[in-house]
Amino acid sequence: MSAGKIILFCIGGLLMNVAGSAFAQYFNLPVYLDTAGTIYIAALGGYVPGIVVGFLTNLVKAGFTPSEMYYGSVSILVAIFAAFSARRGFFDSYIKMFVLIIPLALITGTCDLLIEDFLNSTNLLKSVNEFESSFGGNLLNEVIDKGLSLLVAFVLLRFSPPDVKESLRSLGRRQAPLPDEMKDALNERNYLSSSLRTKTLTLLMLSSLFVSFSIALISYLLFKDAAIDDRIKSVDAMDSVVLSNINPEHVDDYIKHGRILEEYRKIEEKLYTLKNTNSDIKFIYVYKVEADGFHVIFDLNTSMIEADKPGDVVEFEESLKPYIDDLLAGKPIPPIITDDEYGYLLTLYKPLYDKNGDCQCYAAVDLSMDILSDYARTFVIKLIALFAGCFIFIFAIGLAFVENNIILPVNTMAYCAKNFSYDNEAAREKNIERMKSLRIKTGDEIENLYSALIRTTENLLNYFKYLQRAKGQVADMQVKVLEMDKIAHIDSLTGVKNKTAYTEEIAKIDKKIAAGDAKFCIVMIDVNYLKRVNDTYGHERGNEYLINACRLACGVFGKEHVYRVGGDEFVVLIEGDKVSLCKYFVAQFGVEMNHKLSNEMLALWEKVSAATGVAYYEAGKDKTADDVFKRADKEMYANKLAMKAARTD
Known about the structure:
The protein is an alpha+beta fold.
């Protein structure tokens, strides 16, 4: 589903709220009808879309009724309640849905009345009493209102397209939808004790709270300063009114004669009139400042205190002691705020000068600051109501951003990396495709990390393929090397080891001789009549003749001990305990050879005639294996000569 359609759904929920509220106000209904859209979008798409719709509803309504902005937190609570209930299946049937009416009505009714009473009352105790008296009557209206809103949302949910829910819940995500397997794994919440999610959300919450608190504090201080400035202007104007009725030239007469003077009585009457016209005025008095204290000129009776008489001397109050010198000099002093047994008061002493510029007296008005405290309390409550909604709204948006742009991409990459299988090429290919299917598009460092992870994994797979090919090539090379080694050490005609193998073995024996650990013997075999067979029957028969001779030697001495070192020469090399049996092997070779020679059924090339010579290694005498070989070769030649001498053909 496209982002445009998702936005249209949210706008539709917003318009549903605004239209419902306008309908209720137009017909003066005892319900609000401004939460059906919020409940519907929250149940359909989750917390964030519902919170956005709820908060924007109050923002739009605040354009017509500014106080609606203070109820934004209530709309957000409705969205959270609806999303929470929807995830637990309360919108799956009518019965479950109706269960929600009473708790939702209690939540909204309580919050609405508390906010309304606190905003409209400057007396906290009175506000609580008013809440208790109006809660019962308002609860029925709330039940009807929330019942209708839940019913409308429930019906709309039944007709909503199937793909809308998933699209709204994935709103803001910067990657492809996750498969169910990965969703289940990520929902297991196997988070570290100090996970990135915890750190980020903590930082987001603390930052939001700090900003909200700072703005609220600054707003309160500005409000307080502005309110105090306004009160100072008021009390200054009242002081001016008081002084405008006093003749500075007659101050001493006022003190001496007091109410005897008609002029004094007229001024006093005007001062009482001024006091009675403003309930915030607690005290009005006019003093002449002398070194011994304040000399009373005018002082008005109150219900709390009886007024001083003209000419009475009043001691300087503690709050005025820092300004006594200025008062004695007739200078203006700043306003004074006190909170004592007389109450929370703002006092301004304003001097009255005669025609010569001399200060004759000070007029003072004590203005009550209690209303300022009440206004400040109301202002703080408004700030709390306002910032509660703003804080939750900003936090929800920030949470969604962090979850979609940081937490979810990082966790899905970690899941793919953790569950990457290296068992076989098919598994590796499947894992890289799963990682590519995430399609993370955050447009920041997270996307760079994802791209780097993809490249690194692909390079790793290519490296595995290269290793597999190299391993195969190495295995082929090893086979070829073994084959080449076999060819290099095996006689191609007879299949026994050749002269190269014999030379390498003799080198090993020489090392054993040098180490004093040698025990071996050498048998030299030289095949007779090879030239006669080649010349008479051809080289093929000559080869067969050599092969038959080699078979006879292998059959007696063992193939592992036989080497072909020349065209018709073979060497038998025996080591270890078998050396003691060598003479029996040589004798057996002679017996087998004579048996073949005497067999008239065999062709000449099938018979074997060979001279043999044997020599044993003698420690201390033989320096190398070649010394033994030479003795065996000498014995072989002696045997060959003896065989020639015995020939009769």
